[in-house]
Amino acid sequence: MQPRTPLVLCVLLSQVLLLTSAEDLDCTPGFQQKVFHINQPAEFIEDQSILNLTFSDCKGNDKLRYEVSSPYFKVNSDGGLVALRNITAVGKTLFVHARTPHAEDMAELVIVGGRDIQGSLQDIFKFARTSPVPRQKRSIVVSPILIPENQRQPFPRDVGKVVDSDRPERSKFRLTGKGVDQEPKGIFRINENTGSVSVTRTLDREVIAVYQLFVETTDVNGKTLEGPVPLEVIVIDQNDNRPIFREGPYIGHVMEGSPTGTTVMRMTAFDADDPATDNALLRYNIRQQTPDKPSPNMFYIDPEKGDIVTVVSPALLDRETLENPKYELIIEAQDMAGLDVGLTGTATATIMIDDKNDHSPKFTKKEFQATVEEGAVGVIVNLTVEDKDDPTTGAWRAAYTIINGNPGQSFEIHTNPQTNEGMLSVVKPLDYEISAFHTLLIKVENEDPLVPDVSYGASSTATVHITVLDVNEGPVFYPDPMMVTRRENISVGSVLLTVNATDPDSLQHQTIRYSVYKDPAGWLNINPINGTVDTTAVLDRESPFVDNSVYTALFLAIDSGNPPATGTGTLLITLEDVNDNAPFIYPTVAEVCDDAKNLSVVILGASDKDLHPNTDPFKFEIHKQAVPDKVWKISKINNTHALVSLLQNLNKANYNLPIMVTDSGKPPMTNITDLRVQVCSCRNSKVDCNAAGALHFSLPSLLLLSLFSLACL
């Protein structure tokens, strides 16, 4: 078998669109010379020929068009490169793109001595790094395809061709990869017979900058004969994206009086074009400053970094003398390194001139006047100050202090947060009769400390003269409350005390009259002239109007002023106990079974409304005159309880047992209460008291209740 001639797949570096057939090998479409060197002149002159380029598509150059990477140049139809205007610098490299319906190519113009703004074609697309030509021996050899973005119709258009001088019969080319059979599908395709690679639509470098494709040859059955070999399609950038500021809003702050050259903020824009080209090389400038006083150029922006700095003297950066402490700058970013043909984008930078405390607060006048009625409290005067600093900062907010004239702490001063005024208040009522005039010395400072070269002066203190107005004050009882101690049950008409009320208005000669204000039980009377209090009823310590042995009454003292003023006094009467309440027993009903083995009937308790020693120990007895002997028995348990029991079983019936209980008072008091005892029939755990007309309480229940009462004492 004869060895196969290696298949050479040559995708031209110059982007030549070859529509030639195998018979046209004597004509190579494209520029005859691909690289030119031009010395950088002092100035490119408008319409002056720079050099001639020769391009041929081997088909007569029908509809030949040229495009230059710099908008300052054009290529005439005869191939002459000329400048469109007088220009001194255009960079270090230009590209000329020629195109007909049959072929296209690109030439590189190196400007010797030009600024190194834009790299060479090889630098831009990084041929050496991304797609090195393999050195191993193989039949398919490829190089990158270069396609400008934003191409116009018609489509599809050929961008490369596989040349095979010794291809097996009926073999085919196959193209795969992202952009062919992977999303986005259908952008590229290859003629399976001729090897022509074509693009079917406009490309956008900002969407996809490089397509990684693969080329292989197959037999008629689709079986791979050779490959796949990587094919890189590089989209050439065009300046089709404006710079944009993405991080706004842009707000900067600078302290007033800052030195010239103080950095305020940095603004940077983004350009989606190729960062390796001038298409994304940005330059910054300030288009407009508002307001434009005191200087239209208060700030400067670094054209490359975007740093905004102050350029005026510290004296001009005085917030208090500025028309407006807020400046708005229209910042423009322009690509193409700031050349006129570059695209632009703008954003607004807001710069706030921040305040520092370089002005002390000053009272609007040296003396303030105020009047206040005696006995009143609250704000009596607002002290006004002026401060040129920023009202939103501690450099403006005032803090007031009373430094003299307030020994009794009767006055306080606070700052009104809205107006910055000092609100002087009376917090302890003033007395006209003690002092009719007061003089205060008040100072004002800022919350923030002053800058070193500023101090508080005499205008930061003020005097306040306060006049106290006389008011008819109500009489005052002394003492208040008034307290007396008396035994309960004293005779009606007994004198308890004589109240004493004085008029604070010592400079006015007024009389005082007295009256009862509150007397819950109606026991008291007061002489309206001399204030003598006596009783109109018996005082009872056990009354519901008495709380813990103390009775409370209120009296009024009314002066003769116009209008009259009233004072209130309190009388507390402590009532001593007298043995005037007999004790009583509980419970007063009991049950017992007629056949009970335990003859205990009930445990009795006794209580007394009086206080000790007029209460227990109590003496319990059966009133024998009314009850036959040898039936009932009562036994003392403790000072307050006794046990009633039977000496023998009784028939089913109701019995009234008179119980006599006596307290320990001197003299003692006795109470006789009938204890109703129901003797019931108890059979088979059932208690029947019906025949006896008894209440249905079992004996054990009553005993339990009695024992519980005993335990609680």
Automatic annotation (TrEMBL):
Gene Ontology biological-process annotations: adherens junction organization; calcium-dependent cell-cell adhesion via plasma membrane cell adhesion molecules; cell migration; cell morphogenesis; cell-cell adhesion mediated by cadherin; cell-cell junction assembly; homophilic cell adhesion via plasma membrane adhesion molecules
Cadherin domain span: 147-245, 246-363, 364-477, 478-585, 584-702
A Gene Ontology term for the protein's cellular component: cytoplasm
A GO molecular-function descriptor: calcium ion binding
Compartment(s) where it occurs, according to its Swiss-Prot or TrEMBL record: Cell membrane; Cytoplasm
Family matches, as InterPro entries: Cadherin (IPR039808), Cadherin-like_dom (IPR002126), Cadherin-like_sf (IPR015919), Cadherin_CS (IPR020894), Cadherin_pro_dom (IPR014868)
Subunit structure: By contrast to classical cadherins, homodimerization in trans is not mediated by cadherin EC1 domain strand-swapping, but instead through a homophilic adhesive interface which joins two elongated EC1-EC2 domains through a region near their Ca2+-binding sites to form a tetrahedral, X-like shape.
PANTHER family linked: CADHERIN-13 (PTHR24027:SF80), CADHERIN-23 (PTHR24027)
Descriptive protein name: Cadherin-13
Originating species: Colobus angolensis palliatus (Peters' Angolan colobus)
